[in-house]
């Protein structure tokens, strides 16, 4: 049994690694949109469910002994290893195909990209889903006493591996890139295939030593339990999948204000969820040895714990961020880890066919849960009410099973307390404007120059002259009259508004639909500007828009939301992105790229990507003292070094007034002069981190930084260079000294 635990631990690790990397590669190829993310995750889960169901059905139809099951398992793991190398190629081919088709409609593009993602992922993910029924068949053929709980055993190992898969791949990606991490996963799957094959060969030799050739060729089918479990178990499995994955969508919105939008924060949510699920599964394994039936208390706890984020994420409660996450997610996840394998064990009773069907039904719920929460409930209800909707089935089941006594009254009272005292994040603001859609919860708050925009509770931007300069600097730097402009990332709309002050057609690309709807909150003339025939707002991913449009622009200005480490932000800074953008620049056009505050490695990676993409690049600190942001200008033609007076003279009177609307200088010339005085050479930025490569899709330096910023500095502090050299030298001498042997 130890072998099976190791197999499924590594298999669970690889599955999460592939899910994380394939999602990111799909975003790079087809766009960073909520719809695409939902498509990728849904296809991943659909493949798991299909593989689980089909493999269970085939195993019931064709009897396999343990050695045969192990050989099939080895082949499956080998195919999964191949997928690590083939999926990136398939996704790239899909992007090229859609590009050649020149699809302009967003709806058609979603359908086409979704179909390609489905064709790419489902077959390989089906191999992943098939592993548990095949493993159950191997256990069933030999460990008959463990057979009724075989699913929970493999599920436990798989979830523990997934916990490691939520953390370790982040370090692998930082060191080796996405493709390098996939290659490591492929090696691990190949090792599993070889190990399972060796185990099957050894087992076959043992069988031949104790059985006749005839009995080996015709294995006895294990007797199937004639009792038919209640189909209510399948309903419960579907509902656990639906509510658990639906709640993950709500958790991301509720805890983002405290964890920010970096990949490590999202990994923390996944890690806590999986680790608590593992603990719950471990408790079930021990509990099931002596118990056959759970009490209604379990279901009431599941419903009550589903409401804990109301308190844990409330801004009225002061807690450490790690404690917030643990209190809000872990209890519900632990109970879920208890009931899910329990339900599958009861339905399957050790039968791989039944287990495959039950697991597939659970996965169907996992697919529909995020769709229900993200696209139906959250656009019309606040997070607290969505949690109540998702928790209500379990509260109802618990009350129904505990009709006698006062337990249901106590739990009902506790749920009411959580609902009353739990508050959504916007409750911390005075009269905020709140908009919700399938992408995010958007909050506009504050007055005067203190107004701010928050997406999922995280501050995206504020009113600052820097966002005006993102429009006026590149337009004034042109050596010809601009005909149009494009701004990627709408934000408060300040850059969009400043571009319009040049009286040219302006297109704005924004990912979150609710963001442009709050334009009026930050600029009183916003509604009027949106009605202008010169204004055009597109809800789309900026990179995907550039892929599909044939339009060209004199200026393209990009203001990715902070922090610079935000998940997915590198896709607007990489060499691949710039290669997509360059054809959309008109002859002599200028790219204005804003880089929020980062470390030297971030600046070096972005500056090097620009220099390797454009022959002419200039950079300016917004404020060299605070270093909170950098303006880059890039072009395929030489950038003329206009004086501040010349830049001001190039600006129309309306644009000049817009530039100094918020100061700090009284006229456009002095405003430009301040920025020109802060120019720094891109080579100075690349010199800050000479070993850092140009930012690429495969290795986003800015997003994966823990080893660079935390681990390596800690090691350097712990091991001073001379001390480290002495320690290593001493260790090497001890290994070479034959008198001391290898005891050390």
Fold and architecture overview:
With 744 residues, the chain is an alpha/beta fold. It has 4 domains: 1-208, Growth Hormone, Chain: A, CATH 1.20.1250; 229-428, Up-down Bundle (Growth Hormone, Chain: A); 466-688, Vaccinia Virus protein VP39 (Rossmann fold, 3-Layer(aba) Sandwich), CATH 3.40.50; 706-736. The chain is built from 28 helices and 12 strands. The strands form 2 sheets. It has an 8-stranded mixed beta sheet with strand order 7-6-5-8-9-11-10-12, with helices on both faces. The protein has a 4-stranded antiparallel beta sheet with strand order 1-2-3-4. Strand 8 (553-558), helix 21 (575-581) and strand 9 (585-596) form a beta-alpha-beta unit. Helix 4 packs antiparallel against helix 13 and helix 8 runs antiparallel to helix 12. The longest helix has 43 residues, at 168-210. It is globular and about 85 Å long. The model is unreliable at 212-220 and 731-744 (pLDDT under 50).
């Amino acid at each position: 049994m130890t072998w099976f635990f190791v197999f499924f631990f590594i298999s669970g690790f690889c599955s999460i690694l592939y899910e994380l990397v394939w999602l990111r590669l799909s975003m790079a190829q087809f766009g960073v949109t909520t719809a695409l993310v939902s498509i990728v995750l849904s296809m991943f889960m659909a493949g798991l469910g299909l593989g689980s169901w089909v493999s269970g059905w085939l195993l019931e139809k064709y009897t396999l002994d343990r050695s045969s099951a192990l050989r099939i398992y080895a082949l499956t793991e080998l195919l999964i290893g191949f997928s690590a190398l083939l999926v990136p190629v398939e996704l790239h081919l899909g992007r090229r195909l859609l590009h050649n088709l020149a699809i302009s409609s967003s709806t058609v593009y979603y359908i086409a990209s979704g179909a390609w993602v489905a064709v790419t992922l489902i077959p390989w993910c089906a191999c992943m889903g098939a592993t548990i029924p095949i493993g159950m068949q191997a256990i069933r053929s030999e460990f008959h006493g463990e057979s009724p709980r075989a699913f929970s055993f493999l599920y436990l190992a798989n979830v523990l591996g997934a916990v490691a898969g939520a953390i370790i791949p982040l370090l692998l990606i930082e060191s080796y890139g996405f493709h390098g991490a996939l290659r490591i996963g492929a090696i691990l799957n190949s090792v599993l295939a070889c190990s399972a094959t060796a185990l099957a060969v050894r087992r076959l030799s043992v069988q031949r030593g104790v059985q006749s050739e005839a009995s080996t060729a015709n294995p006895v089918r294990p007797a199937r339990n004639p009792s038919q479990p209640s189909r209510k178990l399948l309903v419960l499995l579907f509902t656990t999948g639906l509510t658990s994955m639906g709640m993950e969508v709500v958790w991301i919105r509720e805890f983002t204000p405290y964890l920010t939008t970096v990949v490590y924060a999202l990994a923390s949510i996944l890690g806590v969820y999986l680790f608590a699920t593992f603990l719950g599964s471990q408790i079930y394994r021990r509990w099931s040895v002596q118990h056959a039936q759970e009490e209604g208390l379990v279901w009431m706890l599941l419903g009550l714990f589903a409401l804990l984020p109301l308190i844990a994420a409330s801004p009225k409660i002061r807690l450490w961020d790690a404690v917030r996450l643990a209190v809000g997610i872990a209890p519900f996840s632990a109970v879920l880890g208890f009931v899910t394998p329990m339900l599958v064990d009861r339905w399957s009773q050790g039968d791989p066919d039944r287990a495959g069907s039950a697991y597939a039904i659970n996965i169907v719920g996992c697919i529909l849960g995020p769709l229900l929460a993200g696209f139906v409930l959250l656009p019309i209800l606040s997070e607290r009410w969505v949690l109540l909707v998702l928790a209500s089935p379990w509260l109802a089941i618990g009350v129904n099973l505990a009709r006698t006594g006062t337990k249901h009254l106590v739990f009902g009272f506790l749920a009411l307390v959580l609902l009353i005292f739990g508050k959504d994040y916007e409750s911390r603001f005075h009269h905020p404007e709140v908009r919700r859609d399938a992408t995010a919860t958007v909050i506009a708050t504050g007055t005067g120059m203190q107004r701010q925009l928050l997406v999922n509770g995280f501050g995206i931007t504020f009113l600052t002259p820097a966002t005006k300069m993102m429009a006026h600097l590149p337009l004034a730097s042109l050596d010809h009259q601009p005909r149009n402009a494009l701004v990627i990332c709408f934000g408060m709309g300040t850059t969009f508004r400043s571009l319009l002050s040049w009286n040219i057609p302006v297109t704005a690309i924004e990912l979150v639909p609710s963001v442009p709807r709050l334009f009026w909150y930050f600029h009183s003339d916003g509604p009027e500007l949106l009605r202008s025939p010169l204004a055009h707002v597109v809800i789309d991913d900026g990179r995907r828009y550039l892929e599909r449009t044939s339009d060209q622009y004199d200026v393209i200005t990009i203001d990715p939301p902070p922090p610079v480490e935000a998940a997915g932000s590198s896709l607007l800074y990489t060499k691949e992105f710039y290669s997509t953008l360059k054809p959309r620049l008109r002859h002599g056009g200028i790219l204005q790229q804003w880089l929020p505050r980062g470390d030297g490695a971030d600046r070096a990676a972005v500056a090097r990507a620009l220099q390797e993409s454009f022959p002419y690049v200039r950079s300016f600190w917004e404020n060299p003292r605070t270093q909170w942001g950098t303006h880059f200008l890039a072009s395929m033609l030489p950038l003329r070094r206009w004086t501040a007076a010349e830049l001001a003279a190039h600006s129309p009177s309306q644009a000049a007034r817009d530039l100094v609307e918020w100061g700090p200088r009284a006229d456009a010339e002095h405003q430009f002069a301040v920025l020109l005085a802060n120019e720094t050479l891109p080579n100075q930025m690349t010199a800050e981190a000479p070993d850092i490569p140009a930012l690429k899709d495969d290795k986003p330096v800015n997003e994966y930084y823990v080893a660079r910023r935390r681990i390596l500095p800690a090691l350097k502090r712990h091991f001073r260079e001379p001390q480290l050299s002495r320690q290593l030298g001493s260790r090497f001498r001890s290994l070479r000294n034959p008198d001391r042997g290898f005891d050390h």
